[in-house]
Amino acid sequence: METAATTPPPARAAQPGPQTEPPPTTAPQSQLALELLVHGVGGTTPQEMLGDPRVQRITGDDTAACYRRTDDADAEQRPEDFRARPVREAYCWSNLTSGNGARALWLILLPFMVANLAHWMRPAAPPDHRGQRIYDLLVRLLALSLTVLLAAAACEVALDLSAWQCAGTPVCATGKSWLGFLNPADGGWWSAPGRRLVLACVLPLTVIGFLWWLSHRTWSAYESASPPPRRPGAARGTPAHERTALGLDGFWYGRRLVARLRAAHTTAGVLTVSAALLVAALRADRRAGAGPLTAVGQTLSGLLLLLAAVTLTVVWRTARSEATRDEESDRLAVRALPYAALAAFALTAGYAAWARPAVHSAGPLPGVAAFGGIAVCQGALVLALAVTAWFLQRASHDEARTALRGMGGPAVALLSCAVAGVLSGGVAQRFADWIDGPATPGQRHAPIPGPPVLLSWQASVLPVLLLVVAAVVALAGVRVLVVRKQVAEDVPGLYDPRERPDVLRTERIAGTIARAGLTDAAPVLVAAIAAVTLVLGAGAVAGAWLTDLAPGRAAEGSAPFVHAAAQTAEALGSWLMGAGVILLLTMGRRAYRDHSARRTIGILWDVGTFWPRAAHPFAPPCYAERAVPDLTWRMATWTEQCDGRLVISGHSQGSVLAAAAVWQLDLVTRSRVALLTYGSPLERLYGRWFPAYFGPPALSGLHREMDDWRNLWRFTDPIGGPIRLTSEDGRAVDEGPLRDPLAFGRTLQNPLPAQILGHGDYQADPVFDRVRADLLARLESGILGRRTNEAGAQGSSGRSSA
């Protein structure tokens, strides 16, 4: 998505203005109107939004703020100057997503963000349907498994490959100074296998601690904005199925839920590290017949299982409380859970560091089969989620426009597991290749066994998955060519027939329309990738299980061609998995230095981090939990202070923020507000993928409860689209499709070819000014009518009293 841009003079630096609201005035301001502009994805400057190089901050901070033209900063003090035009004010929120280059490194949190999206994709079943709680619980458990997988991947790199395999093999440890003091040939204190493992636990614990700190810090910085108080009032005849949770008081404030999930996921990560450490020591004591040490290890196993059960209980009982603001502090037992896990780890570390002279590290670290268990568990959760979504979809009120017929959540959840597997496998494979020198880990003459077999099988199926994606992309290209040919016949009829036909111009416009239509085919791509991922993932687990059951037998019994093809696929997939990890890190590093790249990566987060962290606390922070309260506070305080009209004008993702903010207003304030959206994905994307919150019933309820709503859209826009609503008096919400480009060829009025605007610059269309004027006029007549009625009622009351 891109933001709508005007055609301003060259932008200069914003002039810092007062940090408080303009002082109230007692002058009559019934004629005063405010247009609150909200930009879209990618961000823009207030100078570009307002079309003036001189702007002044009215309220806010460096992260998000409202700006006006310097000449309009004191508009409340002179309302007579704004009778013919509204006061224009720009809300800039781009720094919430793409302002800081370091945030580009949040790309490594991509699996957590995708899993969190699955939580919000449940079908729009009735509020009392039991399947909703089951759906939310399954997504939370799936998110917890991703944290366990992350901790296990860190343990694979630090404990298994480094401390157990390479440091325990003199051939591998030779020449690596950072492993010299761990080499058993030197006989140092740290050379014992258990002590090497304890020292290596520093890396996975640091990763978990960093995620805990990042989650806590980002909540305090971006998601702790409290919504304004609301006046009591009931929805004006809105049916129950048209009310959405986006209008509840506590939707954008879930402090305790995030804190509970953060404690549970941190505990799960620490317990995973403790389990990896305990399994190796306990296995050695059982083989050596050390009864007392075995008893200690079994006791610690029981302690870890108890803490794991408590963690699962916390995740099980944690659900969003959206009716009211969840500002209470959590119980001490939940807050102390991570510290209990750290205490259990300290006991386990002491047990593992006990001297065992006869123990030597050989082969892979015991417990690496847990990767297969995690994969099977994730597959079972995804299948259970699909069954639950099917029942919810059957009970929903709308099925026509819902993406994948309600299966969008399970498909996206499966993709989150696949991305997590690629990242963990890619890191393990690349690290093993690096640490093993010129040899290939796992081969016959390699000094170390290498990563678990499951990761190698996952690498083998990755090229097949990429071939499927390439095939779907090729079909999409064919579709664009077919649609372009069909649309090209109708393009000249949209313009003045006196203009000279231009074949090249026609094909360019038709091609833009065809490519914009690919957005509606996105469910097909997601479904294809999810289906192939499920089949290939199951095949990888089965292949790894057969390999562990009979190592070497499958390769010996297969044809040479098949064996060579399998080795080629494994090697190619290993490089692809590693390349995926390197690509993410490279993009993060480039974004730190390059402003344009930082803005591009910020666009990805604008789409994925709109929703609160309801399933995974380590996902990137939700910018809407700051932006929506900001907009709600601004609209509520301005209408209360000025008693005037307000049009909130949102483009692209800004239209989603604007609609969410209007939902949060009380009915008195909402009656003074009109909504103008353009390039809006409210129905085209959010309504289809998040039907429980933006489906047709929810959008109909929003339209019924507010004064008026108009939406502008184009065929050439790949993001925005129609809302598909009609008001009670028969007027459609949608205004369009708008003509794009505004002129087909060269004319006396347009000597140069007009630009194809697509998703941007809606304000350049004359229709924009006309629709905005209509909204302001409608608001003015409604407010004056209410004031006349109120004055008449007060006069009648006074005469009756006399």
TrEMBL record:
Transmembrane segments: 134-154, 197-214, 263-283, 295-316, 336-355, 367-392, 412-432, 461-482, 524-546, 566-588
Lineage top rank: taxon: Bacteria
InterPro entries associated with the record: AB_hydrolase_fold
Extent of Low complexity compositional bias: 1-18
Sequence segments annotated as region (Disordered): 1-29
Keywords, alphabetical: Membrane, Transmembrane, Transmembrane helix
Name of the featured protein: Integral membrane protein
Organism of origin: Streptomyces lunalinharesii
